[in-house]
Structures are given as structure tokens and as C-alpha cells.
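task queued by scheduler; priority normal; single chain, no ligands, no partner chains; default sampling; output format set to C-alpha cells
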Amino acid sequence: MSEHDEQVDLNEELLAIAQAFLARHEGEGESDDQLLFCRAVKHLQGMAVPMHLAERLVSHAYGILKSCNDRRRLDVAASSETVAVVTDPANGLTWAVPVGLIVKHIINSPCSRKLRLVES
């Protein structure tokens, strides 16, 4: 097994740990996603995971957790650098969304929440 394969396996294992942490603590009445995110990052850091990697893994795990009940999917093969193609296999609908609109209405929106580790 190569060093790259070992790193991929370790990252998959850490992602599974992050997912389990989020799923376990989401049901504890924790209504603040930011706080839950920070706790999950700190949990991974407690396992000697560097902060940048912990944030990336928890972000991925958070996305998986929040989208598991959503049947819509990003069609990566049909998407480009400037257009995201979203499909809903249940009803056969497809949407092509310019990335600029995603940035304008979601990422740059004043009410947009960015999940990052916040040190107190």
C-alpha cells in the first residue's frame, strides 16, 4: 500500500469519526450549528488532526449530514467551472445554476453563515 493510499484511508476514517460525532451530538438539542461545528473540529484536533484538515473534514461531514435526506444531487459530470448542474432523479428535473448566482445569493448574502472554528 502506498503512502497516498494510507493517507486516503486515514482521511476516510477521520471523516467517518467526524460524521459520527456530528450525528451523535446533533440530537442532543444542540440548536447552534456553529457551536456543533466547532466542537467537532476540536474533537478531531484532540486526536492530533491539524486544524485546517479538521475544518475540511468536519465541513465535508456536515454537508453529508445535512444533505442525507435531500434527494437532489450535484451532477459533477455535467457541471463546469462556471455552471453547477443539479438534478432531482425522483422527478427527472435538472437545473443549471451559474456559479455567479450561487456566490451572489448564497455565499455573499448578508445572512450567509460560514462554518469555521471560532476560538473563545
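post-processing summary
- The mean pLDDT is 85.
- Residues 3-26 form the longest helix (24 residues).
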